[in-house]
Amino acid sequence: MNRIPSKIKFINPPGVNFPGGKTVHRAGWVMITPDKVIENACLEVENGLITGVYGASSGRNTHGQDTIDHGPGVIMPPLVNAHLHLELSALKNSLCFDKGFAAWVQQLLEKREAVGQAALVKGAKKAAQELFEDGIGYIGEISTLGFTRTIVQSLDLSGIWFQEFLGSALPDIGLENKNFLSFSLAGHAPHTTDPLLLQAAKKKTRTLGLPFSIHLAESDVESEFIAGKEGEWGKFLISRGIETSLWPIGSKTPVQYLDDLGVLDSSTLAVHLLNTVPLDLDILARTNTKVCLCPRSNMNLHKKLPDISKMLEKKLAPALGTDSLASCDSLGIFDEMAFVRRNYPNVNPVQVLSMATINGAKALGIEHFAGTLEKGKKSAFIYVDLNIGNKSNIIESLTTHEI
Ligand SMILES: [Zn+2]
């Protein structure tokens, strides 16, 4: 895989306030949005906000004396990884995918225990630092153990840090709705978490105006259990003494189940959606639920992929995530885009770039300051060093790694 970080320069980390003063940044191209890319253009910023974008075609001088000229490449929004688990980074390349999902989960729990806290912290710090090198400034970090909260804060990353919960007790942590980095809750999945707990967590995050995230419709085991079939998962829960006789499961899909629980709305981020029927996509569209896909992780763990074309048809605007380094070989969104291009030849590359930027920002509820370089948004951006003279070739290169 051709990694491109050496060609990426981060201009202003997105998690901090910038000093005031007007600055003008020029490049061969400025990508305001994936479908609005301007040649020989300048981005004006002041007091930490974008105040304007203009190209030479407007008649204005793009080579002013105080202009910072970055080169022939592209100034574009930082990418969004809307679903990752930094705390599993130390497990990179140590798990086997060939024996199925249940065996992978078992290995994950054993190896996480065996590796120990110090190695997990070290791995998470290194992976978090590499996000900047991959052009990622905004994240939806899912944490079960809790220690990545301070790591994310210390690196000036922006987005949402989610405390994930399983079983039957809500974590007692401070939730805050901050400007650039918020702290919220994530349910693990419909088949692993008590429905009353999912409802309580959703209510809490809704009251605070925070997004709520959950893995949804990922595994066959989950679908079987929610459909009410006596399967391995039901037996497992009984063996753990978990009482599920009052759970409102049976004759429904995981998406329909969460809809019945009242958990789906415009601030819920549903992750994966591998096992869906057409009605599920209609429910997600009707409730305006946000969607995040992790196709590389899905292929490794489940040997199948979500139906992106159908989702786009239903106007679901999926975001991209990577899941963790325990199920994917990088946390890079350029890598994820390249995988999508290879496996979904019919999806328009402009759509793929939208998935990596504005769709991700909407998925995390931060589109008011992130996801595009439109006037009024935060002046965090990246410069990708490439030398290409035509707009569609730029989009092609950015989404296929050929730079
Ligand atoms: Zn995940």
Structure notes:
The protein is α/β, with parallel strands linked by helices. The chain has two domains: about 5-75 and about 370-400, Urease, subunit C, domain 1; about 80-365, TIM Barrel (Alpha-Beta Barrel). The chain contains 14 helices and 15 strands. The protein has helices at about 100-115, 115-135, 150-155, 195-205, 220-225, 230-240, 255-260, 280-285, 295-300, 310-315, 335-345, 350-355, 360-365, 390-400, and strands at about 10, 20-35, 35-45, 50-55, 70, 75, 80-85, 135-145, 160-165, 180-185, 210-215, 270, 290-295, 320, 380-385. It has an eight-stranded parallel beta sheet with strand order 7-8-9-10-11-12-13-14. Strands 1, 2, 3, 4, 5, 6 and 15 form a seven-stranded mixed beta sheet that branches. A hairpin with a 2-residue loop joins β2 and β3 (about 35-45). The protein is globular. The mean pLDDT is about 95. The structure holds zinc ion.
Topology (SSEs and partners):
Layout: E1 8-11, E2 22-33, E3 36-46, E4 49-55, E5 68-69, E6 74-76, E7 79-84, H1 101-115, H2 117-133, E8 136-143, H3 148-154, E9 158-165, E10 181-187, H4 195-207, E11 212-216, H5 220-226, H6 232-239, H7 254-261, E12 268-272, H8 278-286, E13 290-293, H9 295-302, H10 308-313, E14 319-320, H11 333-343, H12 349-356, H13 358-363, E15 381-384, H14 391-400
Parallel strand pairs: 2-5, 2-6, 7-8, 8-9, 9-10, 10-11, 11-12, 12-13, 13-14
Antiparallel strand pairs: 1-15, 2-3, 3-4, 6-15
Helix pairs in contact: 11-12, 12-14
The structure holds zinc ion (ZN).
